[in-house]
Design a protein that fits this description.
By secondary structure, the protein is mainly β. Helix content is about 5%, strand content about 35%. The protein has a six-stranded antiparallel β-sheet. A five-stranded mixed β-sheet has the order 1-34-35-36-37, with no helix packed on it. Strands 2-40-39-38 form a four-stranded antiparallel β-sheet, with no helix packed on it. The structure holds calcium ion (CA) (2 copies).
Length: about 575
């Protein structure tokens, strides 16, 4: 009876969740008064229609306030702010969430996840952002959990495990909201985990569907078996698919028109490719997954039989354009492997593939008919013999990629993609390795090296129709932050040297910069508040580069750590 009474009262007084609905989130790109999704809209183009701040007045952009994440926990701050109803929400390093007053910067609340000893993030203790829905802020933690907080007070509403951290699972991506579900991936490709995409009920956190990314593993839908991914042993020999990697560690995008969720997948495990002959599906790929059924509709593999740690996780950004005289539904990805791919987003057909970096040693070009790379002879590191390491090869891009996690932007005005890229190479070799739960599973070694005298980082404006680089800005240290484009003819991105910079979107001319006191590896956003246009970005140097940078580390050895939210507006 008690249960019935409770149900009755719930019906009589429906628990109306105040706050953004799924419909509001789908419309985020058209509502410049708030930022309620990662990427500023389900397509994640990171384009704002605001133009009060523009290339003629950006020189008058000044800080409105700054807010510290405080404490002793610094390291990489890769988050993108969420702005809603007078509050700015940011995630911080070490699985923290903060709510700040959007007018004053005063802290409203802070949530610190209690992380166990023995978490195994490969590439710093970062987090890339939260999702907002109704009364909740939802984010992923380094011990592979998804947590929903009450956005008014930071109290936990639900807390769900998405992987076993003791087996190397973790999570750092911003979740996305699709049809009242929260959809997320997992991290841990360097530990022989199995990549997956999963959808949960946003109100309860209960699992709706789970789709592994490695062939042979069973998916689920509403607690029932939902078909094996691919066909067991079709592109993997023996048992290696059981610990095959393919982590979906960067999250995904969503296209309401096709109802497809696009997630990239990471490297096959281990790195030593001689142990796993075959294409190793669906690693180093983009997967298009039906949002309702959790089934893979199409896939495109950027690096078949990867041997360089060319994770294919980079964001796949839907855009509409005329190609070959036809209006096309397209999507683009700037891959770790140095090529920029344009696909038909309805079926995964390759429409174009162009280099966006100085050098690709592993493949010359991409065959537009087959969609496969034209591999370079001798470009793959050699097989170990017995206990001896295999032949060392010089490879470019380095495993940190022509572009890594940092999201590009697409301007609907210039019709260009703005790609935060890096020119660097590596010596790489293979070693013997066997899988052991919770231990690094590489079977490879590497040293990263610069390949240019004057830069590593390069922000590049790419015409997706022609593959032409329209302009580039070179930066001494590696670029590691996200990009924002606006209708004000502006492109913003941060540098490890501590600057947030603004460029002319058409010409690439640098128009403004501000020193934030630590490296900027977060993703900037913009919104309108009380009739004025604001810009916000996180500052705090870290991420994979200082951990794995090898010889390029000299470009950033003087940079201090930090943890600040910076907010700017025009000085009127
Ligand atoms: Ca909005
Ligand atoms: Ca990887």
């Amino acid at each position: 009876m008690a249960a019935l009474a409770a149900a009755g009262s719930a019906l009589a007084v429906p628990a109306m969740a105040e706050g953004p609905t799924t419909a509001d989130i789908m419309n985020d790109a058209n509502t410049p008064g708030d930022v309620i999704s990662y990427g500023m809209g389900p397509w994640q183009q990171r384009f704002s229609t605001l133009d009060k701040l523009n290339s003629t007045n950006v020189s008058k952009l000044v800080p409105a306030f700054a807010a510290s994440l405080g404490g002793e926990k610094q390291r990489g701050q890769e988050s993108q702010p969420i702005v809603y109803d007078g509050t700015i929400y940011v995630t911080g390093s070490y699985s923290r969430v903060f709510a700040f007053d959007a007018k004053t910067g005063e802290k409203k609340w802070e949530y610190n996840a209690r992380l166990p000893d023995g978490i195994m993030p490969c590439c710093d203790v970062v987090n890339r952002g939260a999702a907002i829905h109704g009364d909740k802020i939802i984010f992923a933690t380094l011990d592979a959990r998804l947590i929903a907080l009450n956005r008014e007070n930071g109290k936990v509403i639900w807390n769900k495990k998405i992987g076993d951290y003791q087996a190397g699972y973790s999570a750092t991506a911003a979740p996305i909201i699709v049809k009242d579900m929260v959809i997320t991936g997992n991290s841990g490709g360097e530990f022989g985990i199995v990549g997956a995409v999963e959808a949960r009920n946003v109100d309860t956190g209960e699992l709706v569907w789970h789709r592994p990314t490695i062939e042979g593993h069973m998916g689920t839908l509403n607690g029932q078996d939902n078909g094996i991914t691919g066909k067991t042993n079709a592109t993997w020999e023996g048992d290696l698919w059981k610990t095959g990697g393919g982590a979906t560690w960067l999250g995904g995008t969503y296209d309401p028109g096709t109802n497809l969720v696009y997630f990239g997948t990471g490297n096959p495990a281990p790195w030593n490719s001689h142990l796993r002959p075959g294409d190793n599906l669906y690693t180093s790929s983009t997967l298009a997954i039906d949002a309702d059924t959790g089934k893979i509709k199409w896939h495109y593999q950027t690096t078949p039989h990867d041997g360089w740690d060319f994770d294919g996780v980079n964001e796949f950004i839907p855009f509409d354009a005329k190609m070959g005289g036809k209006n096309m539904k397209l999507g683009a990805k700037a891959d770790r492997n140095g090529f920029f791919y344009v696909l038909d987003r309805t079926n995964g057909k390759l429409m174009g593939a162009h280099k966006f970096v100085m050098q690709t040693t592993w493949a010359d070009s991409i065959d537009l008919k087959t969609g496969r790379p034209n591999f370079t002879e001798g470009g793959r590191p050699g097989a170990p013999s017995g206990a001896e390491k295999g032949e060392v090869v010089f490879s470019s891009p380095s495993f940190l990629g022509g572009k890594n996690w940092m999201p590009m932007a697409y301007s609907q005005d210039t019709e260009l993609f703005y790609i935060p890229s890096n020119d660097w190479g590596m010596d790489i070799w293979n070693e013997p390795i066997a899988y052991k739960k919770g231990a690094a599973y590489l079977g490879a070694g590497f040293t990263i090296k610069p390949i240019a005298e004057d830069h590593i980082g390069a922000l590049r404006a790419m015409d997706p129709k022609t593959g032409k680089i329209v302009w580039e800005y070179k930066n001494p240290a590696p670029l590691w932050g996200g990009v924002l484009a606006t209708r004000g003819n502006l492109v913003f991105t941060g540098t490890p040297e501590g600057y947030l910079k603004a460029f002319d979107a058409k010409t690439g001319q640098e128009l403004w910069k501000f020193q934030t006191g630590s490296g900027v590896v977060g993703s900037p956003v913009t919104w309108e508040q009380d009739g004025e246009q604001y810009v916000a970005v996180m500052s705090g140097w870290g991420g994979a580069v200082p951990l794995w940078g090898g010889e390029v580390a000299k470009t950033f050895k003087e940079i201090s750590q930090g943890g600040m939210l910076w907010v700017f507006k025009l000085n009127n």
